[in-house]
Amino acid sequence: MDNSNTRPYSVAIGASEAFNELLKQVKSQIPKEFRSYSGNVKFVPSRHGDQVYFPSPCREQDVIAAIKALEACAAAAIGDLRHGEKPRSIKVDLDKAACFLMSAYLATIDGKRKGETPKGLIPDTDYNQAQSIQYRRLSANLYETREEGRYYHIHGSLDATTQLRMINLPPFNPQLTDYNKCIDTIEAAVKKFTVAELEEMNTKHGQAGVEALKWEDFLKTPHGKSVSALPPFTVEAINVHQAMMPETPPHTPTETNFQSSLWPKGPIREGRQYALRGIKVIEMCRVIAGPTIGRSLAAHGAQVLKVTGPKLPDVPFFQVDVNTGKHTTHLDLRSPTDLKIFKNLLAEADVLIDGYRPGALAKFGCDPASLAKLAQQRGNRGFVYVAEDCFGGTGVPGAEWAGRRGWQQIADCVTGVAWAQGKFMGLNEPSVPPMPMSDYGTGALGCVAAMAGLYQRETKGGSWMCRTSLCQYDIFLLKLGLLPRQEQERLRKVFAGPFFKLRHYDSVDKVSGEALKAMQRAYPHLFGPELMLKTKSEGFNSKEIRWPKEAIEVDWLFIKHERASRPNGYDEPRWGDWPRDLILDDGDTATADQQQNQQQQAMTSAPQRRSRIATVNTVTATA
């Protein structure tokens, strides 16, 4: 069976195709042990059907299910390395994978979703009012330029002042509060400039911004040519000569002790385990893509410590989702005292996640060469450095945009995703797609890359550098081709109404909001308790937090968060035996004591529990 034009579209089949293509593209970047589990993967649709849920022409659900399948293969291989070989079947729940792509829009605090939370419920990290003031928020948006038919996505990032002044608008305009009037005002300002002029100003002022290109035009650019030749992520040994250190000797587990010297020590238990229990991760990221790497590693048992500056802005509500499973702390690395604390934390870490513009953290010793030197100083226990950025191509000849700032909408516009979305909506203009799908997809790629780096560190020694980017995710997505014409027509009928009245200038908040309302009407089961977890968060004033369940299951392994989300900067900057929270199924009515007993029993039992989701029409991946 295939996804031919005469059959209803099957995400399970599409995911299997995407998985096989992903395995081909990253073959040289992952251990063969990851690939050996590919035949164990099953893509499982729910009893509600096997279908596309998002109003997008791109194969987003296929791709995220494929990446999650590879993540599960990585967990299985690491589980074998650490805890001994076992028969491990792998299931990817397609509905949960879809929920992962819009996790920030499903997460709730005290029953409130994004855009519904009253002031004071979440600490305000929008220090520059780039999110809370609509006029300033719309300085990050897509507008037409002076050249008819050419569109440019300006981006004020997390401080709109420079961007607005760049196009000769005041940084604040208290009288301008209406959504449409804000758009009219800003687009009129952008229309005074050509694309070339906007590019020149962007460079001068260090702003994020790009022309919205079509896929075929992106591939003609020097950067497009270079980055499109890369796999979705890269994993390579750090140049030991550059770092001036001997390579860490490899460690091979014995038949009786599967914990070699680089894995954290601890008692070997029977039953299910976390693949990354005890691995220490420092996360230096904001917003969604980078923090999703840490969030995903935490679901495999890693200790993830998110480090942000006390005055560094971030999107407040996103923290409810992406900080799940972590501890968070504030450190100002410009302060000698805080930098010393950070260095002490770093000396014990296994993984560093860098979500900033390439090279921005080098002055704090957070570059690959410095980490490799530090590995030598601490007894040759290597580091895994994981970099996530917008454009990709760091160190690649011809990748001229590698050092530019950027966010999801920037990548979606420059690669051609926005033009594909606009055409799907019946427009002769680009439109930003709904939901932070590229953000979450890139984060999932970064998680797999990190797990590959950890496996290589264990089996080959040394320190490892892993890189992925929003553009690399989008390139993989677009290379697969768009959904078949009949499936796009079906989606147009399902989402007929306000969503298809949107234009290029409508913000990602507006686009995602209209998509979300339509999805709630068409696919209400995606928003029900069956797919959610819940717990109370001490960091958010003991309010109840809800978030989507993990999409993958691997026999003999736990893949589930142990800690509630918390705001940035909540915890002390230290490692240690962090307490665990009681995580419940959202629809579970058991008492806390009953749940605690269930959790303790699960820690010592074999994986006998099976998903309640119907297993009819599962598709087994073939590699």
In short:
Belongs to the CoA-transferase III family. With 623 residues, the protein is an alpha/beta fold. The chain is built from 23 helices and 20 strands.
Description:
This protein is an alpha/beta fold. It has a single domain (11-122, 225-620), classed as Rossmann fold. Helices cover 36% and strands 13% of the residues. It contains 23 helices and 20 strands. Helix 1 (11-25) packs across helix 3, helix 3 (60-83) packs parallel to helix 19 (437-460) and helix 19 (437-460) crosses helix 20. The longest helix is centred in the first third of the chain and has 24 residues, at 60-83. The radius of gyration is 23 Å and the shape is globular.
- Here the CATH topology equals Rossmann fold
The overall number of domains is 1
Task: Return Rg in Å.
Answer: 23 Å
Structural class by helix and strand composition: alpha/beta
Treating each run of at least 4 consecutive H or I residues as one helix, how many helices? 23
Distance between the termini: 16 Å
- CATH class annotation: Alpha Beta
Mean pLDDT: 90
CATH superfamily grouping: Crotonobetainyl-coa:carnitine coa-transferase, domain 1
List its traits.
Rossmann fold; globular; alpha/beta; 20 strands; 623 residues; 36% helix; 7-stranded mixed beta sheet
How does the SSE layout of this entry go?
Layout: H1 11-25, H2 32-35, E1 41-44, H3 60-83, E2 90-93, H4 94-100, H5 103-106, E3 108-109, H6 134-137, E4 141-144, E5 151-155, H7 161-166, H8 179-190, H9 195-205, E6 208-211, H10 215-218, H11 222-227, E7 233-237, H12 240-243, E8 273-274, E9 280-284, H13 289-299, E10 303-308, H14 318-322, E11 327-330, H15 336-348, E12 351-354, H16 368-377, E13 384-389, H17 408-415, H18 417-424, H19 437-460, E14 464-469, H20 470-479, H21 485-494, H22 508-522, E15 532-537, E16 543-548, E17 552-554, E18 557-558, E19 584-585, H23 592-603, E20 619-620
Parallel strand pairs: 1-2, 8-18, 9-10, 9-12, 10-11, 12-13, 13-14
Antiparallel strand pairs: 1-20, 2-17, 3-16, 4-5, 5-6, 7-14, 15-16, 15-19
Helix pairs in contact: 1-3, 3-4, 3-19, 13-19, 17-20, 19-20
